Amino acid sequence: MKKRKYLCILIAIIITATSICINASATQSDIVTNNIESRINLIINNSTTYEIIDQIALESLNNSDKYICYSLSPYGYAILNTETNSFEEISPFLTETPYDDITSDCYYFGPQKYYYMSETGIVNCKTNEELTFKEYNDFVTVEAKRDSLQELTSTLDSSELATVTRGVTPEFEFEDNYVSHKNYFTSLLQNHYPNNQNGTCTIVACAIMLGYYNYYSPSNYYIDSEYCDGCGTNQAFHDLLCTYMNNGPTGLALARRGIIEYLEDRGRYITTCSVKIGSSADVFSSVKEKIDEGNPLVAAMFESYGADYNHSVVVYGYSTEYDNTLSQYVSRYYYTHNGWLGSSDATNFMIYNYSVFADCLYLG
Question: Which H or E run includes 244?
Fold first, then answer.
């Protein structure tokens, strides 16, 4: 009888201890999730409150970087690099993640590069095309380069950053700034900007940027009325800019000369039109300076820096993320309009890690 009593007591102790361990583990998991949720909400910074409803582990090719894709409610997703503890990209509006309905191993090779393992090879989640041997080697090379780029974000002095601090979690502090009329970009729906034709994303981005200046310039300084479409610009304006920018794929240096010539041909002279080419940190300094002045920019991401393709976007804001525990900056982010006509409007509003950008073009 006593043995049974002692056995019952022992079992009760084991159950209690196990329960405590499980609850402790669950509590720790909840703390991590709440911390990441808080970071996501502070980075997105709009009137919607986002909650994490699911997550999936993502592999890389170099076996060092690990990622997590968080599904958000009511919509959106965020991809976190668990090695650097910085977000690679955040979508505040898309209703699905790139990995929805995929049950096999998932891979992430940088912004817009979503893959999964099939029975025959690694497949692109968006196009369903299998990764070629050359593409595989190119991705491995790019990932190795990204790992070797040791840009010291912690060297930035806090006095150089925007003065608006939106909030503090136990570890992270966020600072950001936007152009005065950021809603111009989040409300710039389709048919109010030109179509990217044959790789003319730089020209589309320039048209969107000039449209912003034109809309908020009392003298209608930048664009003739025939090229306007509501608050934006039309396809005819794209075609006109093409004549100044090589009639095709255009780098930012050529786009700069094209904008200057376009404006001078109409007797419209601007103070400066400049391009900053260099490291991601150098470009961020220019982006920060111009956004703080209230001026949007065109910025270019590159495959060689880890992007899915060379692509130009409009940047209308930035944020920085500071780790109070480590006393250093985790990363910096750009608020962008992608200029993809024909896609859902939600795909155009993305928050990207600054590290894939190496050029920017700005006025003033």
Answer: helix 235-244
CA–CA separation, 51 and 41 (whole Å): 9
Helix/strand/coil for 124: strand
Nearest alpha carbon to residue 60 among 25, 106, 127, 14: 106
The end-to-end CA distance of the chain, in Å, is 90
User: What is the pTM assigned to this prediction?
Assistant: 0.82
Q: What is the DSSP letter of 342?
A: T
Strands lying side by side in the sheet with 122-124 = 106-108, 114-117, 122-124
Q: What are phi and psi of 234, to 5 degrees?
A: -110, 180
Residue range 166-185, pLDDT digits in tens: 444 557 788 889 998 988 88
Residue-wise pLDDT tens digits, 112-146: 889 999 988 899 998 899 988 777 777 777 666 66
By three-state DSSP, how is residue 251 classified? coil
Distance of alpha carbon 176 from alpha carbon 91, whole angstroms = 17
Are 215 and 313 a contacting pair, CB within 8 Å?
Answer: no
Tokens of 123: 């497949």
Longest dimension (CA), the chain: 104
CB neighbour class for 110 (10 Å; exposed up to 12, middle 13-18, buried from 19): buried
Peptide bond into 111 cis (omega under 30): no
